[in-house]
Specification:
Length: 275
């Protein structure tokens, strides 16, 4: 059976993709193709590169269980400097470097080219000036992931073929339309969620900007789903977490367990029906 899998964007909420991949592994299933957007591109690249879901979970826990461990990883194993991670494009333009973030997130042993992944991989980004969705299937994995996670105003993407790219969620937050051709079953995981409730009287500019993007992502994802619904569509219950809550990784994993069980049940039903 050929299964197409789409992993959507949602910042730290995208850590919920990892339990969903565990459902595949525990059932002995492997996607025939993966499309990833934003955080789905990060997790999808690790899985397509040959890591098991449990290995990705362990890697995420090592990096994100505490801030000191993350700092040790970044500034020792990766030999990075603060100036490498932040890029100053002008007095009013301080960005995180998307390609450096991808390098920090992905283990060094993974294939370095998109076309060399063990599972065919499609990474979704957007050409900013042309306003066109771009699906990357070749070239540097770090460049491609860096482009897919480039949240406007926060994370700067590497230029690809001389062109500026931004987060693929701007046009296609759950890119299941790219994993339909020739597939028996299409599975989409939507981790956009709703904006997290803001308890403070004065929310930060980042909270408002990212929350507004999530509103747009939700609308786009729902419209695409209504037009051409995939066979299985799972939205983990992670609205209680913000897109920046990476250090709540254990809680996000726990919150996603119910949806993991749901995905396993639906996969089993579909696979048995098609057998």
């Amino acid at each position: 059976m050929k299964i197409g899998l789409a992993l959507g964007g949602g910042g730290a909420r995208g850590l919920a993709h990892i339990p969903m991949l565990e459902a595949f592994d525990e059932l002995g299933l492997k996607p025939a193709v993966i499309a990833g957007c934003s955080m789905g591109a990060v997790v999808g690249a690790a899985y397509a590169g040959g890591m098991s879901a449990v290995e990705i979970r362990e890697h995420a826990l090592r990096l994100l269980s505490n801030k000191m461990e993350m700092a040790r990883h970044v500034f020792s194993a990766k030999q990075a400097r603060i100036g490498d991670i932040f890029s100053l494009k002008g007095l009013t333009s301080l960005h995180l470097d998307g390609q450096k973030l991808a390098d920090i997130a992905l283990p060094d042993h993974l294939p370095q080219l998109v076309e060399d992944q063990k599972i065919p991989l499609k990474l979704v980004t957007v050409d900013f000036e042309r306003m066109e969705e771009v699906v990357l299937t070749s070239g540097s994995i770090l460049e491609a992931v860096g482009a897919s996670i480039a949240i406007p105003g926060l994370i700067a993407a590497p230029r690809i073929n001389g062109r500026i790219h931004v987060d693929g969620g701007v046009k296609n937050p759950v890119p299941f339309n790219h994993v339909t051709e020739g597939m028996d079953l299409v599975v989409a995981i939507d981790v956009t969620g709703k904006p997290k409730a803001i308890s403070r009287a004065h929310p930060s500019n980042i909270e408002l900007a990212v929350g507004s993007l999530l509103i747009m992502f939700n609308e786009l994802a729902e419209l695409r789903r209504l037009q051409t619904p995939p066979d299985i569509y799972i939205s983990p219950e992670i609205n209680g977490f913000g897109p920046g809550d990476f250090f709540k990784v254990k809680d996000i994993f726990a919150a996603a367990e119910k949806s993991k069980d749901q995905l396993k049940r639906e996969l089993e039903l579909r696979v048995n029906a098609l057998a």
